[in-house]
């Protein structure tokens, strides 16, 4: 009888019961009807145990860091930075929207935060430039799915927690797929630009802008440190162990880094330089997070706490656009977002308990293997299943419920665990922007004032590109696995 928990759960979702309550009520009711009242205590005990995890502490910290960055005026700086590079192209503001999502992904790791923050800025600007509101909302929703793919990613932290994988490996594996989604969307906008005569935009919105002395010197130092870091990584490709000098070689590379930036400075306008310098401090966040994790300085959870500290330093000490009075609202918003995510995680862990009691994993595994013995065909079918699930269920609970069922099946067929994690994470993330129940569609509708139905129609060309990327990731493992392998986090 317990195998009926999934149909009951789906029926509860269809009638409009919130996901959190459906995750608990469906298995709880069936346990009671099945005479297993003792297991009810286990069900609700796991609601707390599912949230009581050190790795999961990274989620509220990353959400808080993103909220601080957004309140600190970071969104406008990233949009101006993206526009300086992409604004002159046909369909410029649509391209800026996509590039801004790529940059914002390294700060928040949330599709909802991306849609809300960038949508409130770019949708009115695009409408003013002559874009239709539904197109502006559609490209905002479509590009927002990049947020949970490029690290830091909340859903990858959840997957690593549930499946016992390395968070660092999943973060690294998400870089190229996230960029690939972004490039695919940009090419789609370029194709649509000629057909619908999409307008260009100005490269520099704010002329004769100024920059505070503190921010100027911070960006001055960070730019040289970053360029020296790139040169240091390239030095490892040279013969005779050029890159083996450690700190001494890195410090020595600060000199050519300085002269390279001075040379570039003379070839761009003053306004372009100011826009870039204003984006330098915010863009250090993903570098700090990934760099610290990769060299082993701190764990992903500690990296999230460091990101919060850095966001506070940048917002209060460098940019000086945030006041102490703003902290109360920032903490309130991030607490509500964190509670929502963690309650869903706890409920999904409880739901997973009934999954194991019902022997659903074994039944599902036997059913999947009975369909075909060819892993390529099975991967195609699972992608279709995940895409459908993503239309109705948020990515976090879907990973907790389906990960333990599907993961062992495909790793047993020879699929790398990290590769399957990326397939599942990207697919369910795209589901956030998929009609009829995609969460970011409703956020985009709320921000833009456009109906969900009209946004759903306008987003279809972009969804087609994202589905294509999913299959590229599925059948060409090197796309996601090369960077983790080079870094030593995957075999």
UniProtKB/TrEMBL annotation:
Keyword NADP: no
Predominant localisation class: membrane
Protein purpose: Part of the tripartite ATP-independent periplasmic (TRAP) transport system.
UniProt KW Transmembrane helix keyword: yes
Superkingdom of this protein's organism: Bacteria
Molecular function terms from GO: transmembrane transporter activity
Subcellular location: Cell inner membrane
Keyword annotations from UniProtKB, A to Z: Cell inner membrane, Cell membrane, Membrane, Transmembrane, Transmembrane helix, Transport
Membrane topology of this protein: Multi-pass membrane protein
Pfam family, one: DctM
Membrane-crossing segments per the record: 6-33, 135-162, 168-193, 214-235, 247-266, 278-298, 304-322, 334-355, 375-393, 398-415, 421-447, 459-479
Annotated TRAP C4-dicarboxylate transport system permease DctM subunit domain residues: 8-479
Protein name, as recorded: Sialic acid TRAP transporter permease protein SiaT
Gene Ontology CC: plasma membrane
């Amino acid at each position: 009888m317990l195998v009926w928990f999934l149909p009951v759960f789906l029926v509860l979702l269809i009638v409009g019961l919130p996901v959190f309550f459906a995750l608990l009520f469906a298995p709880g009711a069936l346990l009671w009807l099945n005479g297993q009242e003792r297991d009810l205590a286990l069900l609700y005990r796991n609601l707390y145990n599912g949230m009581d995890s050190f790795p999961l502490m990274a989620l509220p910290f990353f959400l808080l860091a993103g909220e601080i960055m957004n309140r600190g005026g970071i969104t406008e700086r990233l949009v101006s930075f993206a526009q300086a590079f992409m604004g002159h192209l046909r369909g410029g503001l649509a391209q800026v929207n996509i590039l801004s999502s790529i940059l914002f992904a390294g700060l928040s790791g949330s599709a909802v935060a991306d849609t809300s923050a960038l949508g409130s800025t770019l949708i009115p600007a695009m409408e003013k430039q002559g874009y239709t509101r539904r197109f502006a909302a559609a490209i905002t929703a479509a590009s927002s799915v990049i947020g949970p793919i490029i690290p830091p990613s909340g859903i990858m932290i959840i997957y690593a927690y549930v499946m016992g994988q390395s968070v660092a490996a999943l973060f690294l594996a998400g870089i190229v797929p996230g960029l690939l989604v972004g490039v695919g969307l940009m090419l789609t906008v370029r194709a649509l630009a000629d057909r619908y005569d999409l307008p260009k935009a100005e490269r520099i919105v704010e002329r004769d802008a100024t920059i505070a002395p503190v921010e100027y010197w911070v960006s001055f130092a960070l730019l040289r440190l970053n360029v020296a870091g790139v040169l240091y990584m390239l030095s490892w490709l040279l013969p005779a162990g050029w890159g083996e000098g450690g700190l001494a070689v890195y410090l020595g590379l600060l000199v050519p880094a300085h002269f390279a930036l001075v040379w570039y400075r003379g070839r761009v306008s003053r306004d372009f330089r100011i826009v870039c310098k204003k984006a330098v401090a915010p863009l250090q966040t993903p570098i700090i997070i990934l760099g610290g994790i990769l060299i082993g300085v701190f764990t992903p959870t500690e990296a999230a706490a460091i990101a919060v500290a850095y966001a506070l330093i940048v917002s209060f000490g460098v940019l000086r656009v945030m006041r102490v009075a703003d902290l109360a609202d920032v903490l309130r918003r991030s607490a509500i977002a964190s509670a929502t995510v963690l309650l869903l995680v706890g409920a999904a862990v409880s739901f997973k308990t009934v999954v194991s009691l019902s022997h659903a994993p074994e039944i599902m595994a036997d059913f999947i293997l009975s369909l075909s013995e060819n892993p390529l065909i099975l991967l195609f079918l699972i992608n279709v299943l995940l895409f459908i699930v993503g239309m109705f269920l948020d990515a976090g609970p879907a990973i907790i419920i389906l990960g333990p069922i599907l993961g062992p099946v495909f790793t047993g067929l020879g699929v790398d665990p990290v590769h399957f994690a990326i397939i599942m994470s990207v697919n369910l993330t795209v589901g956030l922007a998929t009609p009829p129940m995609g969460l970011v569609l409703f956020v985009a509708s709320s921000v833009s004032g456009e109906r969900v139905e009209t946004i759903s129609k306008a987003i279809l060309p972009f969804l087609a590109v994202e589905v294509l990327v999913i299959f590229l990731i599925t059948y060409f493992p090197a796309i996601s696995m090369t960077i983790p392998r080079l870094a030593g986090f995957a075999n």
